Amino acid sequence: MKPENRASGILITEQIDHIEHTMISVIIPTLNEEKLLPGLLKQLSNPGIWSGQEYEIIISDGGSTDSTLTIARAYNTRIIQEEQGKKGNIASGRNLGAEQARGNILVFINADIRFREVGNFFNYVRTNFASSEYGAMTCFVATFPEECKLIDRIFHSFYNNYFYVINKLGMGMGRGECQVIKTEVFRKTGGYLTHLVAGEDFDLFRRIAKIHKILYSRKFVVFESPRRYRKYGYFSVAMSWTWNAISVLRKNKSNSNTWEAVR
Predict the structure, then answer these.
(1) Exposed/middle/buried for 119, CB within 10 Å: 0-12, 13-18, 19+?
(2) Which of 41, 103, 201, 263 is the most buried (most CB within 10 A)?
């Protein structure tokens, strides 16, 4: 029994040491997000959710002309901006943030989301995901509760469970609303492909799944704005996702030539 106790003690010590040395970098790509960014930053700026964790919040801005950067400066964030005159996209914005990140865990989230249990989410990332065998993690997505309709619940229920099954089959899938990736894995896979104007989130998780397991957690939910669905309708958005995914798989390029920002 003594050798087993010593081994167990070593494992516990190593796990605690790993947790203590975990730093989380939250990366938020932005472009004219003055309406919804404050709600997210207010959540993230609450010191109580971090429980002594090392963290940083990075705003990777693609050239906002509204008050997005003014809002970001009011919170404890690092602001990184695309080179003036350079036309980027959400993939390049995420990569730019990752290049400057100091953490060994990268949490990519969109500016139009909120967490259901923000404190529990980041505590889980630090104490469970960081020391796990998984290379990446994502969670369920739902519509802002105050704007949710029956069609929203039906749509998200279908896709959440569909993506969950895809990950269980080892194919890899995670929406850009929330993608958690170990830094070493992100660098190993080369990050997001900047020539993809759509489907870049699906593509990265697909490539990660070839070398690491992905955790699609049912425990956590992020809420997103329904603004795109309200403007284009669920059928149009679903078809866009489908054709872009097929094009990425078959041609390594997006079916869409542009991805319109809906504000």
Answers:
(1) middle
(2) 201
- pLDDT tens figures, 185-240: 999 999 999 999 999 999 999 999 999 999 999 999 999 999 999 999 999 999 99
- CA angle (96, 99, 101) in 5-degree steps: 110
pLDDT of residue 87: 75
Considering only CA atoms, which of 237, 245, 238 is closest in space to residue 262?
Answer: 237
d(CA 89, CA 77): 21
Beta strands, E only, the chain: 23-30, 54-61, 78-81, 105-109, 113-115, 134-143, 178-182, 213-224
Cβ neighbours of residue 21 under 8 Å, at least 6 residues apart?
104
Single pTM value for the model? 0.90
pLDDT band for position 180 (cuts 50, 70, 90): very high
Contact 213, 182 (CB under 8 A): no
140-152 CB burial, b ≥16 within 10 A, e <16: bbbbbeeeeeeeb
Give CA separation, 11 vs 4, 76, 123, 134, in Å. 11, 35, 20, 18
| Beta-ladder partners of 139 | 217
Measured CA to CA in angstroms, residue 126 lies from 7, 28, 181, 186 at distances of 23, 19, 12, 17
The H-assigned helical ranges of 57-89 are 68-73
